[in-house]
Write a structure and sequence with these properties.
Shape: elongated
Strand content: 15-25%
Number of strands: 9
Oligomer: single chain
Structural class: alpha/beta
Radius of gyration: 28 Å
């Protein structure tokens, strides 16, 4: 049990340091308290152990079994609490979004809001009040690269990454890798022929400032059987997918952006 406490306490210390380094002060304080808990308990037990014999000697009795049961119960409760906290710490380190300290000068610099262990951007405007809520949309291509989606010309300012101040972006939309919709045509390239499908995209939207999930939906690519002149794919892939146009983006995401 003592070794387990040592290991869990050490992990709590590590998680506390990581939390403070990532700017998450409440989580850092939580793990600092978790790390201190076993030590405080052991000190309190040692202090009581020194005081009890002096009190019981005069009465000619030994400490009762109830105090031993209470002590074991306290140890178990602390162990459960520390295990739960360290388990949450593992989740937080591996999966929870972290604050980004990176310089942001373009909307494309917000791509870490979708990539790997997601980042959020504390200096960005909050997603609150009536629209418009400026958005940055990132797509996962057939080659698994993450790219900023282009909405085309003459779109409203809240959709136009070329005109947006990246710190004013309130919403980050992340499109997963495309799935197969309806088959459209075969596309012949210099060295290969690939099937062209309408792309189907699962989309998750997050607040840029906090990383909190705002909503999710699905997008469909174009149904035009138009082959690109150049494309990149994963090794061994036999198909490619169409991308959504602005009308599709606005129909699916407009309630989060325009309203």
């Amino acid at each position: 049990m003592a070794r387990l406490f040592v290991v869990l306490t050490a992990l709590a210390v590590v998680f506390s340091v990581l939390a403070f380094q990532n700017g998450n002060v409440p989580i850092g304080i939580l793990f600092a308290l978790v790390a201190a808990g076993p030590l405080v308990f052991l000190i309190s037990v040692a202090v009581r152990a020194r005081k009890v014999p002096a009190r019981t000697a005069a009465a000619g009795s030994e400490p009762g079994p109830l105090s031993n049961r209470n002590r074991k119960l306290a140890v178990r409760l602390i162990a459960v609490a520390v295990v739960a906290a360290v388990g949450y710490g593992g989740y937080w380190v591996l999966f929870a979004p972290k604050a980004s300290n990176a310089a942001v000068s373009r909307v494309s610099d917000l791509e870490d809001g979708c990539a790997g262990v997601r980042k959020y951007f504390p200096e960005n405007d909050a997603y609150t009040g009536p629209g418009p809520h400026p958005i940055g949309v990132f797509t996962t291509s057939d080659s698994d690269s993450l790219d900023l989606a282009s909405m085309g010309a003459d779109v409203p300012p809240q959709w136009d990454d070329t005109r947006l101040n990246p710190r004013q972006v309130q919403v980050i939309a992340c499109l997963d890798a495309p799935g197969d919709g309806q088959y459209l045509t075969d596309c012949k390239f210099t060295s290969d022929t690939l099937k062209l499908y309408q792309g189907t995209y699962d989309v998750t939207l997050y607040e840029a400032k906090t990383g909190a999930e705002i909503g999710s939906t699905q997008l469909l690519g174009s149904t035009e059987p138009s082959c690109p002149s150049l494309t990149l794919t994963k090794s061994g892939a036999d198909s490619i997918h169409t991308e959504p146009d602005f009308a599709a983006y606005r129909a699916a995401l407009g309630k989060y952006v325009d309203n």
